[in-house]
Amino acid sequence: MKTNTKNTQISCHTIEISTLGHFDVKKNNNSLVSSAPGSKKIWELFKFMLTHRKRSFTPENLMETLWSRENYSDSRSTLRRQMHRLRQILEEVQSNEEQLIVFNNGFYSWNTKINIQLDIDLFEKAVQMAEEMKEARPEGALINYRMALSLYQGDYLSECIEQLWVIPIRNYYRRLYLKSVYNITNLLKVQGNWNEILQICERAIQVEVYEEEIHLRYIEALLQEKEVKQAQKHYEYFTTFLYQEMGLKPSPALKSAYKRILATNHMHSSIEDLEIDLDNKKIENAFYCEPYVFKMIYELECRRSERSGNMAMICMITMNHPSTVSLEKKQQAMTSLEKHLLEQLRKGDTITRWDNSNFLVLLPGLNDLIMEKVLSRILNSFYNYYSESPDTIQTHYLEVLPPQARSGQNE
Question: What are the chain's domains?
Fold first, then answer.
């Protein structure tokens, strides 16, 4: 009978640990987290030791870091009880060498002799191999990048919201993920594999919705795949999202992407295609545009006024709130007013959100008296319809004049 000698790595039972996007610990393919759902502090202790598995801690260090707000009469005994419960959940034996967290010479530490399958180790290794291959062996790099992206399901220990100790390591893996997304899309771009770029970006947007560069690459891939309308819809979705969530206007890079969308959208193979495209655009409300587009429309109105002598008016609508009103409430009020203006103004009128508290409205064919009456009626109805309307709304009017009229006023 042949006996096996004990290896340095102990692997009597396979332990799989997931940390990216979803935390779980499986032993022999059974979830230990699901079997002990009410043991929040115990799993917090486990996550801390896992995150700092190359360090050792005194009982006092652990208690101060993890539960400094708790008032324990005997912190050492409390920690011993937590460790005992953790070992019960992990179904560990009393032998110190077969325990994931060991206590030696007054310090707790992670037992590196235990063989575990950890998703962050697999993720980091796949990224490292891809980085080494991307220049000389791009196909091999693509395989490893794909593996890395499949492993990254979200933030490291995403459920640990208030724990500051998790932030540095979370940011580290997030940075590796974004770098992998950009590198794999660069390689696929060389191959012209825009379809896979779309799939990668769609997945990445779910994980990192605020990352502008991913949206830019997604829009580029849509344009390359002739999905122009989808590209425009995504641009409108993302810019609206940024403004509503963070009060941000489109960056120069996003504006450049929008210009490419417009340029691509205006390419037609025949006059019949152009006619069909124009007929399909149903106009229901006033025209909303970005500030830089509004400037171009204003310049066009100046030229038209110079030629025809017809008048047009611009109005600045300013919302004033007390200083106690939160930014979120201000943005909600601005969004409500924008919706109301678009519904109440004429189809030929143009509106833009100039900044966080101002709208600009361009009304062709109206003089200042008529424009004041029109907007007074619209703003009064806004107060009636929206209970959370701002305390005051101010309006300032400017007549669109041809260049010679403006120069005459200045003399």
Answer: 10-118 (1.10.10.10), 119-265 (1.25.40.10), 288-410 (3.30.70.270)
